Amino acid sequence: MTVADRSMAPSAPSSELPLLDIVDLQMHFPVSRGLFRAPTEFVHAVDGISFEIAPGESLGLVGESGCGKSTTGRMLVKLLEPTGGSIMFRDRDYERDVAHIKGKETKEFRRRVQMIFQDPYESMNPRRTIFDTVSEPLAVQKVGNVPEREQRVLELLRLVGLTPAENFLFRYPHELSGGQRQRVAVARALVMNPSFIVADEPTSMLDVSIRISVMELMAGLAREFQVSYLYITHDLAVARYMCDRIAVMYLGKIVEIGPTEEILSRPQHPYTRALLSAVPVPDPSQKRTAVEIKGGVSKPVNPPPECRFIERCPFAAEVCRTNPHPPLELRGDRHYVACYRVDEINAAIAAAAG
Amino acid sequence: MTLSQLSLEARQVDPSLPLLEVDQLVMHYKIKAGSVSAVDNVTFTLHQGEAIGLVGESGCGKTSVALSLLRLLPQNAQHISGEIRLNGENLLWLSAEEMRQRRWKDIAMVFQGAMNSWNPVYRVGDQIREALDTHYRGVMTYAEQRAHMEKLFAAVGLPADMLDRYPHEFSGGMRQRAVIAMALSCGPQLIIADEPTTALDVIVQDQILKELKRIQADLGMSIVYISHDIAVIAEVTDSLGVMYAGNLVEYGPTADVFARPRHPYAYLLLRSTPSITGPRRKLAPLQGEPPDLLNPPTGCRFHPRCPFATERCAVENPPLEDIGGGHKVACWHWDQVPELEGLQR
Question: Is the dihedral of CA B261, B262, B266, B270 positive or negative?
């Protein structure tokens, strides 16, 4: 394969099938009980989640720390081997369940997916130049020769707004600012012309003014090259600008998923409501509604079968205690909620509001 | 000071009296390559019972101001000129020992990263006792100290038995509550809170901010909030200062600054802050990069990135001038900055 094959021509128009079809994905980490004892307890970091990502779509995964959003992202790029479930990946000429592939097959799969990490100060080797960093995927996948790779890297640096690109080629990460480094990380993610990128809090370390330009860059590139994103963030305001749909995770489960504006304007799960009302609003003249839930997230070690949110839920009732964790049910335009008492809660809140 | 002043009851506050006055503060860091102009001519006044916020991006000098107030700057920091007066007394003239006497007792601090504020091998209660021992040696008996600490923990919403626990047994939010309890331990009038909620999840952040607000009102406390998160500052402060490259570029009542930012930087900062409420408007990114403070730009430090800049801006540094109602702006062209229409409401 040559560099030219992976040139920046936009991908073919999207087919009907989703790019990623994730079914019942699980990641249970064993809790160590000593060197010679088999683990009896497991942290259910991701506990049976299912969702789809369409070609060119950006799905936001939001939730508090420890809810399993990063674990999910890592499984989708094969940095972690899931303990269960399937990840169906359909790209141009590629279609297979990648959940349990190994070795050469993983390498082949990784031509199509990339990851952007949170901390641009730690995700780059300080002793390698920008050229080395950005061209590394090409070298690993044995694409092109050195002059061709250099052309490709220059093209990408221009694309992400690091101009004049020639001046950046042989600089080191410490010579760049945080925003510039994150642009390098975006360039590195795009160098193989992937169809799917997992971005794990890519802008949370950046200052406000720089954050917007990196967000715009990523959104623009997604439109131009039909790249799909799984955008992992704890910041709902950022998700609003980056994502077509939002999935809210709580202790290893997706509790609500739907189109971004729908989730933000008509949240239905009590956890989503609490999360939204806790976000500070940059306007002192606005009053937020009070947050109704208490405490922080616990670790899901061998969690009981009932609803994960039951301990903190102000609306928990008998039906929640006697039934397993509720399934996601359709409650509006592509809007799914996992709660037994959605209708009662909606009615109660509407009545309280008058 | 007597023990009675340590009680966790409301202090009489007179909002017209200044508590903290920062007057034309100039501070440099000396490094091999030269002198970094980190704080340049910063002036503001905090009244009794008031909460003010300093916002800005990394490297704008907000933390340097906070550390100056506590005189906790690193060795290479040089105070060039200006005064910091607490109740009329210039803190910069105090000896190291006199300043040590003021810390915790008059000014306390809540630092960013509650994870790193505790010594992991001592019980949390013993670490608070250390602050009490420093300032009230021989004044309080062991039992009185314990009773006082239990009251402190109750004030921040922690159970008393957590005093006997080690820091690793606390969750992030609980640790930050314990940090606030420690800050309150010696009955200060002023708390400096540097990014008090930055490492926390939104729901926990909301709880901590409410706690700080309640404590401020209940105890008649004054707070200086330092944050990069303009939305957090909007919720908890009465006055707001926006810093850019070591300068205080805009200062005024929080509601006024948010409704009508007059400095181009403050305006662009608000335009580039995403919000989950209101219409989904287009965000405007700020062009360019923050300046190198080894060689700050001539004239107004924002002029190389400013869409309103003229030749005058490159030559003359605008003073911080009152444009009415205590709203102050350091810009030659503040009257040309457009309204934030349809932005906030």
Answer: positive
Quote the minimal CA–CA distance from B233 to chain A in Å. 8
- pLDDT at position B313, please? 94
B78: β partners: B28
Domain range for residue A319?
249-353
Question: CB contact, 8 Å: A265 with chain B?
Answer: no
ipTM of the complex model: 0.82
Across A142-165, average pLDDT:
90
Nearest to A325 by CA among A275, A257, A251, A262: A251
Q: What is the CATH number of the domain that holds A224?
A: 3.40.50.300
Please say if the pLDDT value at position A252 is more than 90: yes
d(CA A310, CA A157): 49
Distance from CA of A235 to the nearest CA of B (A): 8
| Cβ count within 10 A of residue A17 | 12
For residue A17, which amino acid is it? L
CA distances from A60 to A117, A243, B61, B259, B328 (A): 15, 5, 34, 31, 40
Residues A7 and A69 in one domain: yes
Residues A228, A277, single domain; the answer is no
For the beta carbon of residue B115, count every other beta carbon within 10 angstroms: 15
Q: Is A64 within 8 Å of B203 when comparing Cβ atoms?
A: yes
Classify domain B18-116+188-336 at the CATH superfamily level: P-loop containing nucleotide triphosphate hydrolases (3.40.50.300)
Give residue B242's pLDDT.
96
Instruction: Please name the residue that has the structure tokens 């509790």.
Output: A255
DSSP string, A138-165: HHHTT-S-HHHHHHHHHHHHHHTT--SH
**Chain A neighbors of B201, CB-CB under 8 A:** 64-65, 234, 296-297
Domain ranges of chain B: 18-116+188-336
Neighbours of B317 (CB within 10 A): 17
Chain A within 8 Å of B17 (Cβ-Cβ)? no
Q: Quick one: tokens of A316?
A: 């928990």
Total domains present in chain A: 2
> A178 contacts in B (CB within 8 Å)?
58
pLDDT-derived band at A227 (thresholds 50, 70, 90) equals very high
Let me know whether A208 and A153 are in one domain. Answer: yes
A-B interface: how many C-beta pairs under 8 angstroms? 120
Identify the residue whose tokens are 């090259």. Answer: A225
